Amino acid sequence: MKMQAEVIREGELEKRSDSLFQLWKKKLVVLTKDSLSLFPDGHKRTKGKELGFGSILKVDCVERTGKYIYFTIVTKDRKEIDFRCPDQSCWNASITMALIDFQNKRAIQDFKSRQEMEQAAGTQERRLARAP
């Protein structure tokens, strides 16, 4: 059973569709420390699409008009997903900060894992050096 992640922010965001006409569609969005979930009908009753931060490269292309802030989420496989939000909502900043926090925690974990592996390898070498 999957644990419910702590919600950082929840609200409405508009996503540009992948269709030929590229219409803007409202989505209910739930931001956690590990992912961004999008629900198509504005309710969490249906299965949403989850963008895990492990698959996101960056938040890019922020443009501000009088009414909206436009931004793009770029995935590690170079897919671009366009969003817009009302000017004062700052969804782009919330997503960017959560992504940076996730990437920093992952970098620290990777560094600690490498250190532990190097220490274990050093201990093994010392044991072999002492052997008759």
- Class per helix and strand makeup: alpha+beta
Q: Span between N and C termini?
A: 52 Å
Count of DSSP-assigned helices: 1
Tell me the major beta sheet: 7 strands, antiparallel
Bulk shape: elongated
Spatially, the strands of the biggest sheet line up as: 4-3-2-1-7-6-5
| Poorly predicted tracts of residues | none
CATH superfamily heading: Pleckstrin-homology domain (PH domain)/Phosphotyrosine-binding domain (PTB)
Helix content: 25-40%
CATH class: Mainly Beta
> Would you identify the CATH architecture?
Roll
Describe this structure in words.
- The chain has 132 residues and is of the alpha+beta class.
- It has a single domain (7-129), classed as Pleckstrin-homology domain (PH domain)/Phosphotyrosine-binding domain (PTB) (PH-domain like, Roll), CATH 2.30.29.30.
- It has one helix at residues 91-130, and strands spanning 7-16, 24-32, 35-39, 49-52, 56-64, 68-75, 80-86.
- A seven-stranded antiparallel sheet has the order 4-3-2-1-7-6-5, with helices on one face.
- The model has no long low-confidence stretch (mean pLDDT 86).
- Keywords: Cytoplasm, Membrane.
- This is Pleckstrin homology-like domain family A member 2.
- It holds the Pfam family PH.
- Plays a role in regulating placenta growth. May act via its PH domain that competes with other PH domain-containing proteins, thereby preventing their binding to membrane lipids.
